[in-house]
Amino acid sequence: RDLTDISLLECFIHLRYVDLSENKLQDLSPLSSLTHLLWLKVDGNLLTSARMQELPYLQIISFAHNHIKDMEGITHPRLANLSLKGNKIQTALGLSQALFSLHDLELRGNKLESTAGFNLPKLKNLYLAQNAIRSLEGLEALEQLTTLHLRDNQLETLDGFCSSMKCLQYLNLRNNGISNFQEVAKLQVLPMLQALVLLDNPCSDEPNYRLEVLILLPHLERLDKESVEQDERAEANEIRQKRQEEEK
User: How does pLDDT run across 61-90, given as a tens digit for each residue?
Assistant: First the structure.
């Protein structure tokens, strides 16, 4: 509707669900009086900041496809699901550690160069595809993370994963720059990893690629789009044992 002014909403203090997508909003301050708000969608506006006055019951926000450049000023204590997809965010530093309830964070299609700043111990799903991430930093705080999407980034090394990420089950690294299996071996620190996507990395063109990954990561249940077959697993175990004996 090409709205630029939502000051009228200040009167409707009991609103729970508000969708203001596809307008021309630059200012959300009138929403600060909506203290009962549970759900807010403001996709496709002209917002340059996600900063808002703290709303005590707000659980879901989508700021997708705006012009937001940082993650400061998001402090809603019950926020569980936050989408900032398709903005211009360059760093997660400034993300409030007071987001105690945040489970899902969507940041696809931004300009992140690092994973530093995601100090969110309750986070379960983190979507970072289509950024410019070159380095993995600060992941040790993500102890409850189960899903991590890093597709279409610029990773050449896999330093940064650590054993404190004891719940991570699904990792998507498709279309990065992982060129050798020594980097894949660094994923051995992830005790619960079950599904891994490595398609469109240089290492996926190596001969016996699937076998080499399974030798390094014997607990995988799915590699790329296919489940790990029993005979594949047996062959990988056999080669691993032979190599271990040769090293002795």
Answer: 999 999 999 999 999 999 999 999 999 999
Among the residues of the chain, which ranges form H helices? 181-185, 209-216, 230-247
Total number of residues shown for the chain: 248
State the pTM of this model: 0.96
The angle at the Cα of 120, spanning 158 to 109, to the nearest 5 degrees, equals 60
Q: Are 61 and 34 in contact (CB under 8 A)?
A: no
Q: With beta carbons less than 8 A apart as the criterion, state whether 92 and 69 touch.
A: no
E strands along 66-210, which residues?
A: 81-83, 104-106, 125-127, 147-149, 170-172, 195-197
Q: Hey, which bits of 11-119 come out as E strands?
A: 17-19, 39-41, 60-62, 81-83, 104-106
The burial of 211, by beta-carbon neighbours within 10 Å (0-12 exposed, 13-18 middle, 19 or more buried), is given as middle
The residue written with tokens 């620190």 in the block is 189
Distances 174 to 79, 148, 171, 203, 224 between C-alpha atoms, Å: 29, 12, 9, 11, 9
